[in-house]
Structures are given as C-alpha cells and as structure tokens.
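dumping these here so i dont lose them again. two proteins, back to back, each one seq then structure tokens. dont judge the mess
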Amino acid sequence: MDKKIIKQFFRHQAFIKYALTGAVVTCGELILLFNLVQLRGWWYLYASSLVFFLGLVISFFLRKILVFKNDDWQSLPRQLFFYSLVWLIDIALNGGLMYALVGYLKIGYLLAQIISNLFLGIFGFAFNKLVTFKTFPKSKDKLQHHQLWQEIIGK
C-alpha cells in the first residue's frame, strides 16, 4: 500500500472513528426502535424518544472514550452539556438542510439526508473535538490548591 494513503488514514483516524461510532449507534437505534414498536407494541413516538435519548448517551461515552480518548471525568457535566447542545443544533440544522435541499434544490430526500448527515458529521466532529472534549491544562494555582488540600486531609 502507498505510504501516503496510510499516512492520510492515520491523520484522519479520529474522524473515521467518529463516523464509525455514529454508524454503530445508528444501527443499534434502528434495531431497538424496530424491537420496541414491532415486537413490543410501543407507540412509535415513545419508542423513538427513548431510542433517541439512549443513542445520545451511548454515543457520548463511545466518542469520549474511543474517539477523543478523553479521561477527564471531572468535566463530565460540561462535556455532556456541550455534546447535547450539538445534538440539538444538529436537529435544527438537519431540518433546515433537508427543507432547502429537497424543497428548493429538488434533491431526492434520501440523497439530501446523506448530504445533511455528512455536513452535520463534520460540524459535530469539529465542535466536539475543539470544544466538548478539549482538555484544559491545570493551572499552577489549581494544582497548588489541590496539593494543599491533599496535605490538609492527609492523603
């Protein structure tokens, strides 16, 4: 294999993992949705809401751990907030993109959804990499405060 191709793959490895985790979660969502609606008799809107929430939580942890290799558990509430915010923005952008692509540009809805997903995947990856899972170095003051606290409590 050409060395340039291998270098490019590893250069974009995080984005590929991001896309793959999204695909895995989507497949799991579809299987669970089908199971709840067709086999369990749930109303599709209840089932879809539950599946959407579970997909959010599962994809958050998959991407935190596997894609961005983020082990900062103290920032979990902040990270979950920003990750959820990206999902909400994605919902709005997806609706707008679908309306524009199908309604104005007359692109078929399936192709429009693929285009939208690609755009939103790039947006989500960039935002999550640069904001959600960004690690902040500990300031010297915080580190000294932490060390002092450790001495006080005797650990």
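---- next one ----
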Amino acid sequence: MKLTVKLEQWPLKVPFRITGYTWEFLDVVLVTLDQDGKVGRGEAAGVYYKNDKPEGMVRQIEAVRKAIESGLTREAAQNCCPLVAHAMRSTARCGILRQNSPDGRCGSWPGSNSRIPC
C-alpha cells in the first residue's frame, strides 16, 4: 500500500467568522492510500482551539507511515497510537476504509443498513 500525505489551502467562498476569528481559507491535510489500483482518500483541517493543526497531523501520520503502508486494518487504525490526534486518526482511517470498500464509501452508521460517504 502506498501512502501519500500533503498539505493544501482550500479557499472558502465567504469568510467564516466566529468569536474573534475569521478564516478565508482552510489549511488541510490530505491522505491518499493506493493499493492495486484502489484509492482511498481522507482530509482533515484540525481544531483551532485545541491547537490541532494540519502540520502536526502530517508529523503524526508520518510517525505511523510504516504501519499504514504495511496494511493497517480498520480495527488497528482505531486503536493505534492513543496519543495521536483524533483528526489524524479519522483522516487515515477514512482513507483505509475507502481503500478497502468496493464502492469507495466508508461504511455504515452504527445500527443502520445504509452506507455513508466518507
């Protein structure tokens, strides 16, 4: 499995404002997993008030690159690295789920038979 991680800036159509903050773009980390022609993707922007930034997520993803490229399972992705930020785990897990899904969708809500897009 090949892991690609990159940072991008996504412009917003209109500025997003909340108390004391204004964003005109989002910094995001993009994760792509590719194996045998099947591609899974995930993205995350972090949480500003927890100082959870994409640059830090990239470092954390790179720290577990070997495990991911070795074929990390869904279960292991949910439990690997308890100190790793939730956004990083979600991003990488979404890429793993999409990569393993025949229809490119992440899975289903608990208790639901419907499949949800990631």
